Structures are given as C-alpha cells and as structure tokens.
Amino acid sequence: MTDVFPASLTDGHNERQLALQSLFRTLEDNSEGTVIVDEQCKIVWINARYADRFGFKDPATAMGKAVEEVIPQSQLREVLRTGQPILLDLMEAPDRTLVVTRLPLKDPQGKLIGAIGFALFDEIQSLAPLVAKFSSLQKELAVAHESLAQARRAKYSLGHFIGECDAVQELKRQALRAAQRDAPILLLGETGTGKEVLAHAIHAASPRAHKPLVTLNMAAIPETLLEAELFGASAGAYTGADKKGRIGKFQLAHGGTLFLDEIGDMPPALQVKLLRVLQDKEFEALGSNQIQRSDVRIIAATSAPLARLIAEGQFRADLFYRLNVLTIELPPLRARLADLTLLADSMMNKLAASGLGQHRLAPSAIALLTQYSWPGNVRELHNILERALMLCDKAILEAEDLTPLLYPGTQPSHSSAKTHAESMQAFEQQLISDAIKNCNGHIPTAARQLGLARATLYKKIAGFKPDK
Ligand SMILES: Nc1ncnc2c1ncn2[C@@H]1O[C@H](COP(=O)(O)OP(=O)(O)OP(=O)(O)O)[C@@H](O)[C@H]1O
Ligand SMILES: [Mg+2]
Q1: C-alpha 314, offset from chain centre
Q2: How far apart are CA 455 and CA 468, in angstroms?
Q3: Keywords on this record (predicted)?
C-alpha cells in the first residue's frame, strides 16, 4: 500500500494537521463556548464568551480552577475517566440549555492529557425535532409504565366479593385476618367460586397493597416455559430464550404478592423449586447461579382435588403442608343459595350498565335458579344471566326464559329438521352436562372423564347455545 500511495500519505499527514487546526478554529469561532482542561480536570483555557456565561467576567480568573467550579454541570471529568468522547449532549447553563460536545485530548503516543468541551449552539432550536421526538418517546414510555403498574394492581377489593350468608361473612373475616399476615395463603374451591376475586381482594387489604400483584396461571403456560416464567432466565439460558434474558414473576412481584393460580397443575419438578423458595426465601434464575432474595407473599389457588393429587403422587405433600398454612375454602354456589338473588341483582345491574337494559327476576325464575346445581358456580350464574338478557327483552324474566339456558337439550324441539351439525352439537351438550352432573359439578374431573383438556371443556361450556 505504501508503495502505491506514498505521496498521498505524506501529503495526507500535512493536510490532516491543517484540517485539525482549521476545524478547531471554526468550532472556536462559531461555538458558543470552548473550554480545555488538563488531566487533573483543571481549566487551562476558556474563551471569554463562555467564561462570561458562567459569571466570570475575566476568563483569566477561571484558569486553574476545577472545571465544575466554573461550569457546574460539566462532564469533562467523565471524559477523562473513560477516555471516551461524549459527542452530543444537553447541558443546563444558568439561563438556558446548551448543546455540547466533549472530546478527550491525547498526545501523539495516545496518552490522555486533557479534554476539550464545545458548546455548539446557545439555541437548542436547531435540535427541536430531535428533542420533540425524545420527549414524545418519553411520554409513551411513561404511559406504558403506568399501564403496566395498573395491570399489576388489584382489580377487586373485598367489597366486590358479593355475599352476605354466614359462610361468606366468615370467609371475609378469614380473608382479612390472612391479609395481615405474610404466610402463604391457599384458596380452595370449585371452579367459578371467586378464588381470583378473593386473591385480588386479599392483596388489596394487605400491607403489600401498594406493591405489585402478579399472577401466574400454571394451567395456561406450557410446562417447559413455566420455570423461566416463574424465576426468570439469564440471557441464552435455554434455546429460544430472549437474548436479554427474561424477568421472572418472582422478580416482578418483589415486595408484593404472587398469585399462583391452578397450583394443582404445577409440574412436580417445579413444585420442588417452589418449596425451596418458600423455605429459604431465595431463588435462582434459569441459567444463572446468582442467588436472589425473594420478598413475595404467595397466594395459591386451585379447584383440583389436592388430596387426591397427593395420593396419586402428582402433588407433593411437603409443598402442600407449606402452602396449607392459611387455607380458605370458598363454598360452592349451591351451598349458599341465600346469596343467589343478591348476586343476580348485582350482576343484572352491571349488565344493565353495559347496555343490556334493566331486568328483574320473577319469583318463578328465582325458584328455578335455586333448584339448579350450579356446577360452574358464580361464573355460570353470570353467563346464564348475560345470555338471558341478550336473548330476552322482557323486563321481568320468568322461569320459562331461563329453562332452555339451564337445561339445554331437554326442551322439546319444535323445529323438526335439524342439521347434522345441530344434532351433533345438541348431543355434545347433553354429554357434557351429564358428565358435569355426574362429577357433582367438578369441571376438572368431568374433563378428565370425558378425555378433554380442561381449557377445552371450559370453551365448550362457554359456547353452549340454548336449544330452541
Ligand atoms: N362472590 C362473588 N361476587 C361477585 N362476583 C363473583 C363472586 N365470585 C365469583 N364472581 C365472578 O365470577 C367469575 C368467576 O370468578 P373467579 O374467576 O374468581 O373464579 P375462580 O374460583 O377463580 O374460578 P376458576 O377455578 O375457574 O379459575 C368472575 O367473573 C367473578 O367476577
Ligand atoms: Mg381462577
């Protein structure tokens, strides 16, 4: 290379010197200020305009001072520390914001001998588009943070748990007492009995209320991802892991409450790890050997028959004993029929507010609801009422308006010609409602009996249409 371009290289060297001198002069002439410090970060040169801006009428009086004594916000010391330039930055000066560039100064051997700072404009006007973009991004970030925080706050308080019967009053007393303690809470009850509502309410009533409430549903996440979801993962901890790693629910819930829903579905290997966290108050992210302290109150919930899962070896007895400290059992709806009208009224009021019109239940409708077994509990009551209001515009609902919703398939069919699809659906509805009744309304057991995934069964139940 040197053979090919010897002349241009030597020339280049001279041009470089010239260019440097010219560049410095141009910056000096056009910039609002220039300051040079030595390796001690003491000012060795400052132009008059710049010194004046910081209250030094005579630049000579600023010489030899530590740069911060003259320019309080200066970052030249940082440039000396790192040896790296700060090419563009905003700096607050007494009466305005300056745009500044800071460069390290090195001798020909590359040794750091000082640093130079230019204040390029005294009007940040020219940067307005950049600044506007920055502040709009910052606003978006603030909104995102806020909505995340919102999502991690409790959605319900104890007032949202409707019910006045003795069992519910006792349950609320237990919940309040448990809220004040820090031990794990176990919520047991059939599907739709309000375990999630109660978990939120307990968090809201606890001293941790102003900290996050984070939920992890064991049944909703593939087994292979659960550990990383729970404890986090360091970068590249497993194939397909995020490059930056993953923050686990334990970290997100730090200081607050972690709601472990469907705990009966937790894989045994993970049960061991959860048990360790409960005992030692410590955990490690996947692929990391750094031990992190856990400050999290656990609320676990399940509708699965834990005793049977333990007997079958699917749930660890030792974990059960750890969780079973403050246990609250939620009664099924059929065991608290006294609250049925209260619940129905409150739901119909809410549905009215959402645009479905004001309705009431006739005594015959109440009688019918009281006879029903409610395998899906309060959730099912809500679904039935919602569908009744959508299908019927009478202000007062009679038993006959509800029967087809409660007992689909049992109504005599008036339309003689059913399609194959309709018949199959009617058959399936019958099959499922029989299975649910056989299992005393216990959906997970019914799902097992039918050989369906629980989520699939829920979806099918939610999709049931009245057979008219
Ligand atoms: N006591 C109650 N007062 C008011 N609404 C309730 C009550 N219990 C349950 N609900 C309502 O019923 C629905 C189901 O409640 P929730 O999700 O808490 O049940 P769950 O016990 O967690 O059920 P699953 O075991 O199926 O997860 C929700 O819409 C909830 O608002
Ligand atoms: Mg739930």
Answers
A1: 29
A2: 26
A3: ATP-binding, DNA-binding, Nucleotide-binding, Transcription, Transcription regulation
**Domain range 13-127, CATH architecture:** 2-Layer Sandwich (3.30)
Looking at residue 421, what is its pLDDT? 76
pLDDT value for 287: 87
What residues does each domain of the chain span? 13-127, 158-330, 332-406, 409-468
Residues near ligand 1 (Cβ within 6 A):
161-163, 189, 191-197, 303, 378-379, 382
CATH class for the region spanning 409-468: mainly alpha
How high is the pLDDT of residue 238?
Answer: 64
Q: Which CATH architecture group holds 332-406?
A: Orthogonal Bundle (1.10)
Q: Specify the fold of 158-330.
A: Rossmann fold (3.40.50)
Residue 104 confidence (pLDDT): 94
State the DSSP code for 332: P
* Ligand minimally distant from the alpha carbon of residue 444: 1
Instruction: Give per-10-residue mean pLDDT for the chain (468 aa).
Output: 39 70 80 90 92 92 94 94 90 81 90 90 66 78 74 87 95 96 96 97 95 93 89 76 79 95 94 95 90 95 93 94 95 95 94 87 94 95 93 89 85 58 82 83 82 82 61
In this structure, the residue with its CA closest to atom 9 of ligand 1 is 194
Ligand nearest to the CA of 189: 1
CA–CA dist 356, 350 (Å, integer): 9
Q: What is the pLDDT of residue 223?
A: 85
| 282-284 vs 396-397, strand pairing mode | unpaired
**Ligand 2 centroid – CA 195 distance (Å):** 6
Helix (H, G, I), strand (E, B) or coil at 93: coil
Per-residue CA distances from 465 to 3, 56, 336, 378, 454 (Å): 88, 84, 27, 19, 19
Nearest CA to 48 out of 69, 32, 71, 64 is that of 32
pLDDT at 93: 80
Q: What is the pLDDT of residue 3?
A: 38
Q: Nearest 5°: phi and psi at 249?
A: -65, -30
72: CA distance to ligand 1 center in Å? 59
User: How far apart are alpha carbons 400 and 393 in whole angstroms?
Assistant: 13
Cβ neighbour number for residue 438 with a 10 Å cutoff = 12
Distance of CA 26 to the CA centre of its chain: 52
What separation in Å is there between the alpha carbon of 197 and the centre of ligand 1?
6
Ligand index nearest the alpha carbon of residue 303: 1
What atom in ligand 1 is closest to the CA of residue 346? 4
